[in-house]
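Title: Prediction job returns without error message
Component: structure pipeline
Severity: low
Priority: P3
Assignee: unassigned

Description:
Job completed but the reporter wants confirmation the result is attached to the right record. Sequence as submitted:
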Amino acid sequence: MKNIISFASDFGISDGSVGVVKGVINRIDPDLKINDISHDIPPQNIKYGSLLLMRAIQYIPPGVLLAVVDPGVGTERKPVAIQTEWGIMVGPDNGLLNLACATVGGAQKAYLLENKDWIIPSEGNTFHARDIFSPFAAGLASSQLSIEECGEEVDLMNLQQYLIPLTEKKENEVKGEVMWIDHYGNCQTNISPEELSDLDKNIGDVISLNINNQEIKTTWVSNYQEEGVNQLGIVTDSWGMISIFSKNKNAGEILDIQDGEKVTIKK
């Protein structure tokens, strides 16, 4: 049985890295299908990549996930394959994969990618996506390789984790942060609609929030084009979290913020 490989990276598409990785896969098995999730993850941004994979894993076909955001390439961080109920996830052990694993029920077992039969020899040590991750992903997806044949089993407790920051709730306010700024400039927070409801807020209410040392009055609405929104609004986005947006404009640029910015919403 052949599985689809879903591929995400921070490579961009201008320098050929994506094409090389896909070429390695299809040299091993020309019939393997490759689903590109994204190659525009901000460079070296493990947090962004981890959140992207957490969202995507719920909607992509089961099979093999090949994910590479790897600022530690060539260091002591380990290349791994992780078995889950969804399928197998291949990538660096740097926290990139753990939210996706958790979303589909958690890691069941993990193995190092150290079988020399599946490593492409190279003078350099800076392109593991080409030399290690893609051959193993192809072998696993094409059933030429079992996960147990990849290498030594890894104690799941030793896998690196990226954890979503928790909100801080008080009687009259909730404190969170911007987790994600998307292509349109919408600023997703880690604050849930339920936490706004706990502040006796409902859709249609004016919301007072503090972000980047700015006190802002805005309105909680149901969509991006709702009437009554001035420069900024908040909405429950497609991932079920509170997001700050600007109608037909870029809220991230208007607020002059990046992900990680602290947000306080008051009663």
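Comment from assignee: result matches the submitted record. The mean pLDDT is 94.
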